[in-house]
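Q: What would this chain look like folded?
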Amino acid sequence: MKAKRTGRCLCGSFQYSFNAEPVVSFNCHCRDCQRATGSVFASIFAVPKGSLIMTGEYRFFTKRGDSGREVSRGFCPECGSRVVSTAEHSPNLYLVYASSLDDPSWYKPAMNSYTASALPWDCMDPDLPKYEQGRPTSG
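A: My prediction, written as C-alpha coordinates:
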Protein backbone atom coordinates (compact mmCIF):
# COMPACT_ATOMS: atom_id res chain seq x y z
CA MET A 1 0.00 0.00 0.00
CA LYS A 2 1.26 3.47 -0.85
CA ALA A 3 1.70 6.21 1.71
CA LYS A 4 -1.38 8.18 2.64
CA ARG A 5 -1.40 11.55 0.91
CA THR A 6 -3.42 14.53 2.07
CA GLY A 7 -4.51 17.92 0.84
CA ARG A 8 -6.81 20.81 1.59
CA CYS A 9 -8.17 24.12 0.46
CA LEU A 10 -6.58 27.41 1.51
CA CYS A 11 -8.76 27.88 4.62
CA GLY A 12 -8.64 24.18 5.58
CA SER A 13 -12.40 23.65 5.78
CA PHE A 14 -12.28 21.13 2.89
CA GLN A 15 -9.76 18.28 3.20
CA TYR A 16 -9.03 15.01 1.44
CA SER A 17 -6.82 11.95 1.68
CA PHE A 18 -6.00 8.99 -0.57
CA ASN A 19 -3.63 6.02 -0.78
CA ALA A 20 -3.92 5.24 -4.49
CA GLU A 21 -1.25 5.91 -7.05
CA PRO A 22 -2.29 8.52 -9.63
CA VAL A 23 -3.70 7.05 -12.83
CA VAL A 24 -2.34 9.98 -14.82
CA SER A 25 -0.68 13.33 -14.10
CA PHE A 26 -0.44 16.31 -16.42
CA ASN A 27 -0.24 20.06 -16.79
CA CYS A 28 -3.32 21.38 -18.58
CA HIS A 29 -2.80 24.56 -20.62
CA CYS A 30 -6.41 25.00 -21.83
CA ARG A 31 -7.90 28.49 -21.55
CA ASP A 32 -10.46 27.32 -18.97
CA CYS A 33 -7.71 26.03 -16.65
CA GLN A 34 -5.73 29.23 -17.21
CA ARG A 35 -8.74 31.33 -16.25
CA ALA A 36 -9.76 29.11 -13.33
CA THR A 37 -6.28 29.06 -11.79
CA GLY A 38 -5.13 32.55 -12.74
CA SER A 39 -1.93 30.93 -13.99
CA VAL A 40 -0.46 29.51 -17.19
CA PHE A 41 -1.63 25.94 -16.50
CA ALA A 42 -3.20 23.64 -13.93
CA SER A 43 -1.14 20.77 -12.51
CA ILE A 44 -3.53 17.86 -12.15
CA PHE A 45 -3.43 14.18 -11.28
CA ALA A 46 -6.25 11.63 -11.37
CA VAL A 47 -7.14 8.99 -8.78
CA PRO A 48 -10.01 6.48 -8.72
CA LYS A 49 -13.12 8.01 -7.15
CA GLY A 50 -13.33 5.28 -4.51
CA SER A 51 -9.83 6.06 -3.23
CA LEU A 52 -10.38 9.73 -2.39
CA ILE A 53 -11.88 10.47 1.03
CA MET A 54 -13.19 14.03 1.26
CA THR A 55 -14.41 15.95 4.30
CA GLY A 56 -16.00 19.38 4.46
CA GLU A 57 -18.21 21.28 2.08
CA TYR A 58 -17.40 21.81 -1.57
CA ARG A 59 -19.29 22.95 -4.65
CA PHE A 60 -18.90 22.37 -8.34
CA PHE A 61 -19.01 24.72 -11.31
CA THR A 62 -19.78 22.82 -14.53
CA LYS A 63 -18.87 23.96 -18.03
CA ARG A 64 -18.25 22.32 -21.40
CA GLY A 65 -14.55 22.16 -22.11
CA ASP A 66 -12.70 22.39 -25.40
CA SER A 67 -13.34 18.68 -25.88
CA GLY A 68 -17.10 19.34 -25.96
CA ARG A 69 -17.59 17.34 -22.77
CA GLU A 70 -18.48 18.66 -19.34
CA VAL A 71 -15.86 19.39 -16.70
CA SER A 72 -17.01 20.11 -13.15
CA ARG A 73 -14.46 22.10 -11.16
CA GLY A 74 -14.78 21.60 -7.41
CA PHE A 75 -14.00 24.42 -5.02
CA CYS A 76 -14.33 25.38 -1.37
CA PRO A 77 -17.32 27.72 -0.93
CA GLU A 78 -15.53 29.49 1.94
CA CYS A 79 -12.17 30.45 0.38
CA GLY A 80 -12.76 29.61 -3.30
CA SER A 81 -9.76 27.27 -3.64
CA ARG A 82 -10.00 24.71 -6.43
CA VAL A 83 -9.35 21.26 -5.05
CA VAL A 84 -10.95 18.48 -7.15
CA SER A 85 -12.75 18.17 -10.47
CA THR A 86 -14.64 15.58 -12.41
CA ALA A 87 -14.72 15.14 -16.17
CA GLU A 88 -17.40 13.54 -18.30
CA HIS A 89 -14.76 11.64 -20.28
CA SER A 90 -13.38 9.97 -17.09
CA PRO A 91 -16.40 9.29 -14.87
CA ASN A 92 -14.56 6.95 -12.49
CA LEU A 93 -11.82 9.43 -11.60
CA TYR A 94 -11.38 12.53 -9.48
CA LEU A 95 -8.99 15.09 -10.91
CA VAL A 96 -7.00 16.61 -8.05
CA TYR A 97 -5.07 19.86 -8.25
CA ALA A 98 -1.46 19.33 -7.18
CA SER A 99 -1.40 22.81 -5.65
CA SER A 100 -3.87 21.58 -2.99
CA LEU A 101 -1.55 18.82 -1.74
CA ASP A 102 -0.08 19.21 1.73
CA ASP A 103 3.21 17.95 0.24
CA PRO A 104 3.20 18.75 -3.49
CA SER A 105 6.89 17.85 -3.87
CA TRP A 106 6.09 14.26 -4.96
CA TYR A 107 3.89 15.40 -7.88
CA LYS A 108 5.51 14.73 -11.25
CA PRO A 109 3.60 15.60 -14.43
CA ALA A 110 3.81 12.99 -17.18
CA MET A 111 2.66 15.25 -20.04
CA ASN A 112 1.37 18.66 -21.10
CA SER A 113 -2.14 18.90 -22.53
CA TYR A 114 -3.87 21.57 -24.63
CA THR A 115 -0.51 23.04 -25.56
CA ALA A 116 -2.13 24.82 -28.53
CA SER A 117 -3.46 27.23 -25.86
CA ALA A 118 -0.16 27.52 -24.00
CA LEU A 119 1.04 31.07 -23.56
CA PRO A 120 4.18 31.96 -25.52
CA TRP A 121 6.14 32.78 -22.36
CA ASP A 122 5.27 29.48 -20.62
CA CYS A 123 8.41 27.37 -20.14
CA MET A 124 7.36 23.74 -20.52
CA ASP A 125 9.66 20.86 -19.64
CA PRO A 126 11.09 19.80 -23.03
CA ASP A 127 11.28 16.16 -21.88
CA LEU A 128 7.50 15.83 -21.39
CA PRO A 129 5.15 14.80 -24.21
CA LYS A 130 2.95 17.60 -25.51
CA TYR A 131 -0.62 17.18 -26.75
CA GLU A 132 -2.05 20.14 -28.65
CA GLN A 133 -5.73 19.21 -28.23
CA GLY A 134 -6.06 17.27 -25.02
CA ARG A 135 -4.52 14.13 -23.70
CA PRO A 136 -5.07 10.40 -23.90
CA THR A 137 -7.94 9.48 -21.59
CA SER A 138 -8.49 6.64 -19.18
CA GLY A 139 -10.93 5.85 -16.44
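The CA atoms of residues 4 and 19 lie 5 Å apart.
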